[in-house]
């Protein structure tokens, strides 16, 4: 017991020292945790039981991460993101998996079953690292961030058939059709329990819990839901993370979404830290020395091929710069690949040496990822310059006064611009999607600028304090919140008008000193009632 406690204290101390030192050079804590695992492994000897216990604890870091991702993606969000998840994600996994399978089979001479397992495992990216860094940089709702999250969601779903594939390759008792039917039946059961039952139970359950007026009991109840959903998914043969993700999506439909998300972040980050420590513990320096050049060659080859595949797939659907940033974001191999390699090794589909080489390659790709993401703009500029004509237009366009700033150029933004143009009122439009800006300019809209209204410097540049009003006309709930927080930072100088879709959005921004909130649902209902009252129904 004393030795375990000593290792625990030493690990925390090593982690603290390393991360404080690395933070002085703006190096992410992810790297610090991985280095902590490497250093701890060299100092202490962990028994097989200790490593297994630590791995189970670390797995719940990813569980809570996937739960918070689920909170961001309600059923409505998933419908809105169906292209990113089911088109981009499916194409990326299938094309990458097939290409890596062919390379493993033909170039490296691996047996076809082993090649398929390795090929499709390499198609997976790191949900834990990518989401953590994107969240820290507040980029999950940017153009490339949205694509990355969508692809990662599909990859996490794709882990299920990949694990099933290993069962099919090694099963001698059951036929393929039996295994598929068994999995389909279990998938329907999990969906029914977590979605159908959860939809009618969870909000009532939290209403009952909050009646206790105890923050502690509320947090414990959230943990109960997360772990319970994970265990249900695991019981039916799926991953813990899938259960947590589905539970998050279910809660995203309730009024408790934002409170739960805020309460869980510190707890999630601590467990994620444990996960990254276990990644560092898997680095075998002897293997690195013995197969160093092989690992380095595979690392470069895999990441380049993966980035190229993702770029080729996505550039057909979006601008090249966004495709480049998405490919650089997802070019690493992820933590679920390690789980697939472990299962494949235990079922004798791959040898011990191949298993260790692949683990080292995956871990090193994960170590490189935070550096790539923190220098994403610089790397993207090297490969594809940001549209300078739009930047120059924004730089030159100063000196506005008594103008109206429209944030967003969606259907409502276009309608507002046309109305203001008809009344000869001076206005300008700020839109952060370069593709939308290009279309606006092409259609003859001269007052649209490529800029992000969620940045304070942007609003100052476009003379917000001299404006007569700022109208926020966007649909993205997260971006809406960021812009309203930015407007609030101007200390009441701004006459702001914000359109929200419903009462939950209104509640989110009510405390941000927004001058006028227009609830579209309430406004429409009021108009309908007025029209109904003035109708001369029954008058002949």
Task: Give a description of the structure.
- Helices cover 72% and strands 5% of the residues.
- It has helices spanning 2-23, 29-43, 48-72, 75-80, 82-107, 112-121, 127-136, 143-170, 176-210, 215-235, 240-251, 257-281, 285-290, 292-314, 320-329, 335-346, 352-374, 376-383, 388-396, 411-422, 434-442, 456-461, 477-488, 503-509, 520-534; strands at residues 404-407, 427-431, 448-450, 469-472, 496-500, 516-519.
- A 6-stranded parallel sheet has the order 3-2-1-4-5-6, with helices on both faces.
- The chain folds into 2 domains: 46-383, Na+/H+ antiporter like fold; 388-534, NAD(P)-binding Rossmann-like Domain (Rossmann fold, 3-Layer(aba) Sandwich), CATH 3.40.50.720.
- By secondary structure, the chain is mostly helical.
